[in-house]
Structure formats: structure tokens, C-alpha cells
Specification:
Order of helices and strands: EHHEEEHEHHEHEH
Number of helices: 7
Shape: globular
CATH superfamily: Ribonuclease Z/Hydroxyacylglutathione hydrolase-like
Radius of gyration: 17 Å
Helix content: 25-40%
Low-confidence stretches: 3-12, 38-47, 204-225
Strand content: 15-25%
Organism: Adlercreutzia rubneri
Number of domains: 1
Protein name: MBL fold metallo-hydrolase
Keywords: Membrane, Transmembrane, Transmembrane helix
Pfam family, one: Lactamase_B
Number of strands: 7
């Protein structure tokens, strides 16, 4: 774990992480995280236990994956939580077994244990940001979300139809759907657009099928752009 003790570094890192992982949409989420750090959390840090108004950024680096935790005044936020131990086996046609899928490198147990050590609960976890639907970023999101019930979850809209190169589909839909289902399991707030007119996630079709969900996604995507 790397502990950054400067709000300027924390803000810069947050924006860079968002831009590196999401490009232009990431810049918007980067601004959101930066504003959270600089305006809501405070501007100074010190060694030892955080004092009032002090910010601490916990970075948990692992092999080709990481988790980031923002802490201040007894409140927390998470930006990605790394790989999960689950992966598609091809039994469900929605989640084919594709080349390039990471298997057996989950860090959910380590992340959850560290969060518990910090004293994170559903009462003080303010947000979870899933930067984009790759397993090394949000694979363990469902586990973290189901365990700690963050008040708000931010993640971009996703459909396999958004990906033009088939070799890059991996288990994107698998980890994305698990995240969405985790939020729905406790009626959490899901934000997928920063434009106030498009802040809430589309609901499933009346029959609850994926087709109904995708049609709503496509309509809203056209309206957004």
C-alpha cells in the first residue's frame, strides 16, 4: 500500500488515473474525483492517523491490477478494486470463454480485508467509481459493492456492441453485469452520466431481459451524443 500525503498529489493522481483509463469520459470522472478531494475533503495531510479535514489516498498495487481508496473525516471512496477470482466458463452464452481472459488472479479478499482494517462500512463508504469494464479494474467490484453498499456507484455505460474489435471483448460484459446486479441488490444509486439529464441508469425492459436493457441504452446513448 502506498500512502500519498499531499492533496495536490492526490488530486493529480485521481485525474491522471481517470484520463489514462477512460480517455475523454475519464476526464469527466477525473474532475469529479478531484473536486471531491479538494472541495469536500480538505487540503492537508500528515503522518499517522488522519486528522479532521485531512486526505489520505491508499493505493494497493498488484500484478497488472490495483485498487485505490480515498479517506477523509471517517468517510471513504473507492476507485476500482482490481481483479476477481471468477471468470466465464462459457456455460452461459452471454459470457463466452474468450482468449485473453484473466483467470485465478483475483484480489478481492485482500481488498476487502484492507477495507475492513480501515474501518470501512456501509455507513461511511460514500462512493465506488468503476472506471471502465475490464476485469483488472472492476472485476471485484461486485464483491466490494455487495459487502459495503456504497451510497453511490459511478461507472460508464457499457455494451459489447460498443467494442469494434472482437478480440478486446474479453469478459467485459461479465464483470459489468455483475457490478450492475450488485448495485441493484440493495437498491443503490447508480450514476452513468455526469450530465444531470442523464444521471440515472436505464431500467431493464418490462420482461427484465438483456435486449430490453440494451435498447434503452442505445436510445439514451444517441440522445447523449
Amino acid at each position: 500500500m502506498v500512502d500519498y500525503r499531499s492533496s495536490d498529489i492526490a488530486c493529480y493522481m485521481g485525474v491522471c488515473v481517470m484520463e489514462r483509463r477512460l480517455g475523454l469520459p475519464g476526464a469527466m470522472l477525473g474532475i469529479l474525483l478531484c473536486a471531491f478531494v479538494m472541495v469536500l475533503l480538505g487540503s492537508s495531510l500528515a503522518y499517522g492517523a488522519p486528522k479532521d479535514g485531512e486526505v489520505r489516498i491508499h493505493v494497493m498495487p498488484y500484478n497488472n491490477t490495483d485498487a485505490i481508496i480515498v479517506e477523509c473525516d471517517g468517510k471513504f471512496g473507492v476507485v476500482d478494486s482490481g481483479e476477481d477470482s471468477l471468470s466465464p466458463d462459457g456455460a452461459d452464452e452471454r459470457y463466452p470463454l474468450r482468449g485473453g481472459i484473466t483467470v485465478g488472479q483475483g484480489i478481492e479478499s485482500q481488498v476487502i480485508s484492507y477495507m475492513e482494517m480501515l474501518g470501512i462500512t456501509e455507513d461511511n463508504l460514500e462512493f465506488y467509481i468503476g472506471t471502465h469494464p475490464h476485469s483488472d479494474h472492476i472485476g471485484s467490484a461486485a464483491d466490494v459493492i455487495r459487502k459495503f453498499h456504497p451510497k453511490t456507484v459511478y461507472t460508464p455505460l457499457y455494451s459489447d456492441s460498443f467494442i469494434s474489435e472482437e478480440t478486446r471483448l474479453w469478459d467485459n460484459r461479465f464483470v459489468y453485469d455483475r457490478l450492475i446486479e450488485a448495485v441493484e441488490s440493495y437498491d443503490g444509486k447508480l450514476v452513468q452520466y455526469l450530465d444531470p439529464d442523464w444521471a440515472e441508469v436505464p431500467e431493464l425492459g418490462t420482461d427484465g431481459d438483456e435486449g430490453g436493457r440494451r435498447k434503452r441504452w442505445q436510445r439514451r446513448r444517441r440522445a447523449q451524443w
